[in-house]
Design a protein that fits this description.
GO terms for molecular function: 5-amino-6-(5-phosphoribosylamino)uracil reductase activity. It comes from Micromonospora chaiyaphumensis. This is Dihydrofolate reductase. There is one protein chain. The chain has 192 residues and is an alpha/beta fold. It is 19% helix and 30% strand. The protein has an 8-stranded mixed beta sheet. It has a two-stranded antiparallel sheet with strand order 2-8. The two termini are 15 Å apart.
């Protein structure tokens, strides 16, 4: 069965973006960028592949990605309707019209039911790109959590997971520290 992998950058205090949705305070240092381009090339937007020396299409474990409307909006604002054209993209929104792009599907229904159906279909793993509300709804479906932990505290913003108090246990499966203070942490879901 396919795995749902929540791969995201975060602050030490658990925020993936500022209150306005911006994330420019989470820089991508050269050493970290080189590692991510080698290990997680599919998580770079298609239009950045040449800049980071990523083959097109990039090899990797994913063939689909999930994102919320707020995660999709920055691409739309610059006229990019398919930011990850190398993957099938599912955008969860009740207000967006259907997409004209064959790589992008707007999903207005229940994210949990949709993901369970998607996981049961053949294919590669599924990347949960963001944001916090969608991650909160799908946390019980997440098989792996990969956090690029940045050495910064911001105080408030969009949380890594936005849901009520419901502890969910994960098991540490790997770490990759960098001299910049960034640590890439990989966890697997606990028993369900």
């Amino acid at each position: 069965m396919r795995k749902l992998v929540y791969y995201v950058a975060s602050t030490l205090d658990g925020f993936i973006a500022a209150p306005d949705g911006s994330y420019d305070f989470l820089p991508l240092e050269p050493e970290v960028a080189a590692y991510l381009a080698a290990e997680w090339p599919q998580t770079f937007p298609t239009f950045t592949h040449a800049q980071f020396g990523i083959a097109s299409p990039p090899a990797g474990r994913f063939d689909a990605l999930l994102m919320g409307r707020a995660t999709y909006d920055p691409a739309l604002k610059i006229g990019v309707t398919s930011p990850y054209a190398h993957l099938k993209q599912y955008v969860f929104s009740r207000s967006l019209p259907p997409s004209d792009d064959p790589q992008v599907e707007i999903v207005a229904g229940d994210p949990v039911a949709f993901v369970r159906e998607l996981k049961a279909q053949p294919g590669g793993d599924i990347w949960l790109c963001g944001g916090g509300q969608l991650a909160g709804q799908l946390l019980d479906e997440v098989d792996e959590l990969v956090v690029k932990l940045n050495p910064v505290v911001v105080g408030r913003g969009i949380p890594l997971v936005d849901r009520g108090f419901e502890p969910a246990r994960f098991t540490l499966a790997g770490t990759r520290p960098f001299d910049t203070g960034v640590v890439v942490l990989r966890y697997t879901a606990g028993a369900r």
